[in-house]
Amino acid sequence: MLSVVIVLSVAALYLVSCTTARYTEMETPLAQVPAPPPSPGAHLILTNGQFYTETGTAEAVAIDKNGIIMAVGDADMVDPHKTSDTMVIDLAGDTVLPGLHDMHVHPLGGGLQQNQCMFPQGSTLEQILDTIAECVKGTEEGKWITGGQWDASALAEPPHRRMLDEIAPNNPVLLYDTSGHSSWANSLALKEAGFTQDTPNPEGGIIERDGEGHPTGVLRETAVWQIMSIIPPPTPEENEAALEWALDLMLSYGITSLTGASIGREEAKAYAALADAGKLKQRVRLCLRWDPEDEDENALIAERNLYTRDRICADCVKIFLDGVPTDSHTAAMLEPYEDTVEGRDDEASRQGLLLVSTEDLNPAVTRFDAQGLTVKFHSAGDAAVRQGLDAIAAARSANGFSGQLHNVGHCTFVAESDIPRARPIGATFEVSPYLWAPSPINDSIIQAIGPERIKRVWPVREMLDSGALVVPGSDWYVVPSVNPWIAIENLVTREVPGGSEESFGKGQSITLDEALAMYTVNSARQRGNADKTGRIEPGMLADLIVIDRNPREIPITEVHKTIVKKTIINGEIVYDRAGDE
Ligand SMILES: [Zn+2]
Q1: What pTM does this model have?
Q2: Which of 306, 423, 432, 444 sits at 20 to 30 Å (Cα–Cα) from 331?
Q3: C-alpha 111 – ligand 1 centre gap (Å)
Q4: pLDDT digits (tens, 9 = 90+) for 272-283
């Protein structure tokens, strides 16, 4: 409990934000600070809890009607804010943390996935085909079947369209893999999309082919777009329902703020529609997709503020610089991959490929930076991370420091010499902690990258030690869960949730408090609202989560089982597990 408690009204808050007030505060013992002006009364008081604060823990908070934290301390300190209208909740000793941020997530895809043909990651070929056969039974002839997620290392042989043709001759089928960067289509899907022996590889993509040049059905990166463009898109109503479902799920895990990591127009519209219907609770940043070749994506960025709302900022641009370091070898690496891709020996298969040229990238990032937009890169390989850092450096030399913290995302592999470059140029790292336990997608990464480089996979320890700002992103639905509690545990253990003999990048483990800071205060800084979210203290917005255990007092291997009891955003209870049961 806090022995000294700070109580502020809005007026007092204004005072301590200026320098002279801070000096006075330092010279006067807190007990002698003049009493605050009369409180208008708290809307909500949470008492008898263990609130995580910067200095330790406190036992109660008072929140005003605008969702601002008025007081943090012991019961005596919040009591003066109680009126006959105040709602008081006794937490019976439960732990309260600031709301969690997810800085890279695809909720719409996660919601739409509920209507797809899904099988568990690591499924064998037989399990996959059984699942598809079931889905075929429930689907009208001619209708599309989409789903996933297969991973090459769990199949005994490379996927081929004929395997799917046998069980789904009359339905076009498209299955994506665990990385989301490779797809597997049947013959009917290829035919409907117009693929033939003569179809050339598109820019940034690869059509896998057999000895005679016929497509095998495996499509890498942009090669899948030719199929995606003919699958009937969901209706706006379907999008809104899927997004609402996904955001509710995230509330149940305590996620109060999120960054939509690769937003197209329909998704932006769905967010805005939910907000207009009063159904959007989280604070959302939209990172709108950009590609130099795509006129429509330029148009989307220009119209971004059509989708800005109270809790939506459409002030971020997402740029894909490479793919993934799995069997597909699409992540751009500084050194060649350890293994080879069957049947290929081109430059891209040996070292991966950069999707945007530096000549296109640097002026674009400089322009976005000058427009006040934050850029988020997809950079999995160390060559793509370097390209992202170079582009940020170019923007800084042209514009000076703009205040936007451009964010290099995924960062599966980062050259040691590039890590200290981030902080001086105001670049930040985003990492994908759900992936840090041994898992099928990681088996594929280990095979492609080899045992030596894998030791530094997701070098978060080095990133934090360099003083860089590091934030987490689940990358759901590319990964199978959006549960941040698994990720927080994995950040510390780098083992299978619950603990395991084997680990993944163990040398890059961090502490529990560092992991919690990534999900709260670090992410708030990334979002540019660290003055309002990320910490529990007077003057901050009341984005709080009540959880069923105190992570600091239990074995780390139990953290993944944490259950969120209440999620509060802006002083409003937006998820209540008691009401859910
Ligand atoms: Zn993603």
Answers
A1: 0.83
A2: 423
A3: 15
A4: 999 999 999 999
